[in-house]
Design goal:
This protein has 463 residues and is mainly alpha-helical. The protein contains 19 helices and no strands.
Length: 463
């Protein structure tokens, strides 16, 4: 019996494998936010304008979004371990290129390549967790993964500030090299192989259509939120509609679609993706808008702001593994609905903060948000992965990552829109919108209780 046919890995190998996953995910998710803090310094050192320097962040995020599903499809074809380790190698080497960059152009190109490496890591990490953990303990694996993603996303600015306190900005990227290489060595030793989809071939045309679809979607969202020409936004939306229709119609005729429309026909899979997008949109609405309130209205400095935001990821860190164990006994729809309801109450309570709140007023509200988010994420990720047939785990993993990225991108765009519409009350509006999205997600999550919560073990319906 091979490792992929067995129900999970034996304990010593399992620990080594999950450590390889944890290290790779940590650096790839951290790099989505870690450069933000250093943008003014980087722009000054590279003689770039502040507006142009935004591409250091956008290029990385865009590269991940347009390639995630394509790389998850390659994972089904070539094996998840190969794609994950190739991603680690590319990410590590391009991190060195970022550190050595001497112009905005070279840094942007390096960030694009680094984004492709990060996409390879993110595209198959949950598919690997599915074969690392026995089915009965899959929730625990998903809990660890949700914990790493949530904490890494929230900790980016804090980690960046810590590095910049004693080193220059190139070290933000150089630090990835030893961590990435360590994860690569651990992966070579501990990560399992998996059986591949028979007869599946890579669809290059679908990969191009996928990149155009998500690229146009992000461009239209960001442009509209930042007040670009309505004519240009309309043109992007028209192009998105045309390309998107062609893309989806092509997927409907494929036995192994790049955009897993066959998996979207599974009700609990589709509902879980919807709640994931809602949760990450709400999280990003809060994370981006709160620092403005804490610094400009409440009068806290950057260090105090970072400390006041910290209870959120700490609460997630505590609740995510617990939720991963609870999903072994209770329906994910129930746990997720409760988690999102708690999350929504925390967001609304933040919106109702007094004009001069004490630190304790802020901290307990942050704890409620983080606890609700952690209680939701682990069971939801468990459901998304286990609802798909095993030979489509790569596609499910890619959709999970895509849902997170779409949610984060949408949330960030909505913050810009709220600040443009409500000016001085932008944070208040953003938090109320975040609470509304979380509450809507809670309703959808409870609806999942009408669906079976067991994993799909049979072959793909179109295989």
């Amino acid at each position: 019996m091979t490792a992929t046919q067995a129900d999970g890995l034996p304990v010593p190998q399992r620990y080594g494998a999950i450590l390889a996953i944890a290290l790779g995910i940590t650096v790839s998710v951290l790099d989505s936010a870690i450069a933000n803090v250093a943008l003014p310094t980087i722009a000054h050192d590279l003689n770039a304008s502040p507006a142009a320097s935004i591409w250091i962040v956008n290029a990385y995020q865009l590269a991940i979004t347009i390639s995630l599903l394509s790389l998850s499809s390659l994972g089904d074809i070539l094996g998840y371990r190969r794609i994950y380790q190739a991603g680690l190698l590319v990410f590590s080497l391009t991190s060195l290129l970022c550190a050595l960059s001497d112009s905005l152009t070279t840094l942007t190109i390096a960030r694009i390549l680094q984004g492709f490496g990060a996409a390879a890591i993110m595209s198959v990490n949950t598919a690997l967790i599915r074969i690392i953990y026995p089915q009965r303990y899959l929730g625990r694996g998903m809990g660890i993964n949700a914990l790493i993603v949530a904490v890494s996303s929230a900790a980016g600015p804090t980690v960046a500030a810590g590095i910049l306190s004693f080193a220059s900005w190139p070290w933000l990227f150089a630090i990835n090299l030893p961590i990435g290489l360590l994860a690569l060595l651990l992966g070579l030793k501990f990560l399992p192989a998996n059986s591949r989809s028979q007869g599946q071939k890579f669809d290059l045309v679908s990969a191009i259509l996928n990149a155009l679809t998500f690229g146009l979607l992000i461009s239209a969202l960001s442009g509209f939120a930042q007040g670009q020409s309505l004519l240009l936004t309309l043109g992007e939306l028209v192009a998105l509609a045309v390309v998107g229709v062609i893309f989806v119609r092509r997927q409907l005729g494929q036995p192994f679609p790049l955009l897993p429309v066959d998996l979207l026909r599974i009700p609990i899979f589709a509902l879980s993706l919807g709640t994931s997008i809602c949760s990450f949109s709400a999280q990003m609405l809060a994370f981006v808008s709160l620092p403005f309130f804490l610094q400009t209205v409440v009068g806290r400095d950057e260090v105090a702001t970072g400390l006041l935001l910290t209870p959120w990821p700490l609460a997630t860190m505590v609740l995510a593994p617990i939720a991963g164990r609870l999903v072994e006994r209770y329906h994910a729809g129930l746990l997720g609905g409760i988690g999102l309801a708690v999350f929504a109450s925390g967001l609304v309570s933040l919106a109702l903060l007094p004009d001069n709140p004490s630190d304790l007023d802020i901290i307990w509200r942050m704890i409620i948000c983080g606890a609700g988010f952690g209680l939701f994420q682990s069971p939801n990720n468990h459901t998304i992965i286990s609802a798909a047939p095993r030979n489509r785990s790569g596609g499910a993993s890619g959709m999970l990552g895509t849902a997170r990225l779409l949610g984060q991108t949408t949330g960030a765009a909505l913050v810009a829109l709220m600040f443009n519409l409500f000016d001085h009350n932008g944070t208040h509006a953003s938090l109320l919108l975040a609470g509304t999205l979380a509450a809507g997600g809670a309703v959808v999550s409870f609806l999942r209780m009408t669906q079976p919560g067991t994993a799909a073990k049979g072959p793909s319906p179109r295989a």
